[in-house]
Amino acid sequence: MVLTMSKKKEAIDTIIDNIFKLDNPKIDDSRKQIITDFVVGAINGDEPVSDLVLNANLDDNTKGVIAYILTNFRLVKIDIDSNEIQAKSFFLNTIIGIERKIINDYEQFSISFQNGSFGLRYSLKDQNFTKFFQQIDQVRSS
């Protein structure tokens, strides 16, 4: 899949819109250009395939937004809080393992890479998470 420049821009605009739609916490609109530039830099010319944007606890004392962006080569994780933006990038060909488990009414998903790992726990009722992680498997195997 090769995206035209307008389709790449459209995909990035959708990610940015998803970040600024969230309201717990709400990211200050004055940071929109900074965050847009950061996302473009983090994607670094790759083709966005899918994204998952959600409010989350970034650590014990910090609420913010996490954006997972699946590209044709990498999985990019961007953490945004009221002061800071951080990105981690994992090449899909470095995935060591993917683990899923169900705990009560939640599904837990963990992905291990050669240079780190991350996971999410979410309600079984929310199929957006499951769909996103299935897309990781599909892009990785193509």
Characterise the protein shown here.
- By secondary structure, this protein is of the alpha+beta class.
- The protein has one domain: PH-domain like, CATH 2.30.29.30.
- Helix content is 31%, strand content 43%.
- It contains 3 helices and 7 strands.
- It has a 4-stranded antiparallel beta sheet with strand order 1-2-3-4. It has a 3-stranded antiparallel beta sheet with strand order 5-6-7, with helices on one face.
- β5 (95-103) and β6 form a beta hairpin.
- α1 (5-21) crosses α2.
- The radius of gyration is 15 Å and the shape is globular.
- 20% of the residues are buried.
- The model has no long low-confidence stretch (mean pLDDT 90).
Q: Briefly, what is this?
A:
The protein is of the alpha+beta class and 142 residues long. It is built from 3 helices and 7 strands; from the N terminus they run ααβββββββα.
CATH class: Mainly Beta
In helices, the fraction of residues equals 25-40%
Question: Counting H and I runs of at least 4 residues, what is the number of helices?
Answer: 3
Assembly state (oligomeric): single chain
Number of domains: 1
> C-alpha Rg, in Å?
15 Å
Low-confidence stretches: none
| CATH level 3 topology | PH-domain like
Write out the strand line-up for the largest beta sheet, numbering strands in chain order. 1-2-3-4
The helix/strand class is alpha+beta
CATH architecture: Roll
The backbone outline, from C-alpha atoms, is globular
The biggest sheet, with number of strands, parallel, antiparallel or mixed sense and barrel status, is: 4 strands, antiparallel
Mean pLDDT: 90
Spell the H/E element sequence.
Answer: HHEEEEEEEH
Spatial gap, N to C terminus: 11 Å
| SS elements, strand count | 7
The CATH homology group name = Pleckstrin-homology domain (PH domain)/Phosphotyrosine-binding domain (PTB)
As a percent range, the share of strand residues is 35-45%
